[in-house]
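Quick question: what would this complex look like in 3D?
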Amino acid sequence: MPLDALSDPTYLRSIIRLSLTVSLVAVLVSTVLSLPIAFAVGFADFRGKRFVTAVINTGMGFPSVVVGLLVWYVLSNQGPLGTLNLIYTPEAMIISQCVLAAPVITGVALSAVESVDDAVRDAAYGVGGTRADVALITLKEARYGVITGILAGFGRAISEVGSVLIVGGNIAYADGTSKTRTLTTAIQFEVRKGEFEVALILGAVLLVLVLLVNGIVLRLGGR
Amino acid sequence: MNLAFETVSYGVDETSILTDISLSVGAGEVVTVIGPSGAGKTTLLRLAALFERPTAGTVRCDGTDPWALSRDERLTLRRRIGMVFQRASLFETSVARNVDVGRRVRRPWAERLRGFGRRLVGRLRRDGPTVDDRALEALELVGLEDAWDRDAGSLSGGEAQRVSFARALAAEPDLLVLDEPTSDLDPRNTAILERAIDRARERGHGVLLATHDMHQAERISDRVAFLLEGELVETGPATRVFENPRDERTARFVRGDLLYDENELLA
């Protein structure tokens, strides 16, 4: 029976839980790191700003397999952070997804912040705002762009296969629950087994999850 | 608040924009700066609103040099000044929240965070919008009290500028600095805004206004200052400056001559 893999809901639940946890944590960490960078670069005028912007934009197109390989090297036993024993753990997957999502969030947020008219910043200052108020009001004006960046980062993270496969290993426990198996790596695994129906169902679940997260975030963002 | 320019000069790099400006604005007084484009009116107003620091001379607020104070002390002074720009530059939110922003930024962070949390919960529960009395009062002054729950983006240019004026006024500044607020407005919106300026003056607000509109300057000013190429040519009571200017250049500008450079037009 081709759908045997899904007969046990624990299996599916554990994959969904891990996928969401890893991607949401990765996006949260990336957002916390990315927004201050986007603001610092967006607000400041300094030599080399175009170069920094170009580096950020290049990061948006990092090949995920290469990122996975680099993170694997850093976290592997021979790597600089090998003593932390993070390889083939969800934490390693979070790190690799952060590396992939952060440039996307930074790049889109930077573009959104730069598109806010100087007149809006003047208006925020003119009503008695401090620098922090001006930054917050600018963030609010750029919010749809920033939210788009965060959602794009989430999309990049949750749809990731190559790097999470390398650093996570697509491992399931003996009882069938997931250790480092996400929806995407499970789909890849099922396809390799020839279980296309299961892969399709997992794909549909992934789509629904992405839609749900997008809907919730956009609702909170006021759109 | 008494704002006084004491031989103020301002320049960027090697370019001088304002030279030796001496001018004052007191409570309940409308002082209008007139002058052709590029004369330095906006720069003068930005110095008055403490956006920029003079390169020479002093801008005093009630006798104090704000730039000799700490940033926090200067912020306290800056918050006694409200500025309205040539472009309305409203924030992407409701009219009520635009008008209330000046008072919100003055609240302690803990209170602001609680307000943010309440708004987030309210959004999820689909609660209706609310308006503060003070914001409504400021909107009444510009005749837009019924528009408080509208989205700022849905306003016409004239309405947006009136909301921008209400936004400055709602923070209860002592001094209003208005940079050509009616230059893009139709006669009706201009009249409403002029009436609002007049009422602000009656309430004791000082007003420093820049305008191209000679008739407006004559209508609403107590005193007029004529600025040309960064220098104050003449300052005096509005009626005197318009009816009996002492400087030939002022006379020509008031007549409309200096508005046009014939050589430039022919070029």
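Answer marked as accepted. The mean pLDDT of chain B is 92.
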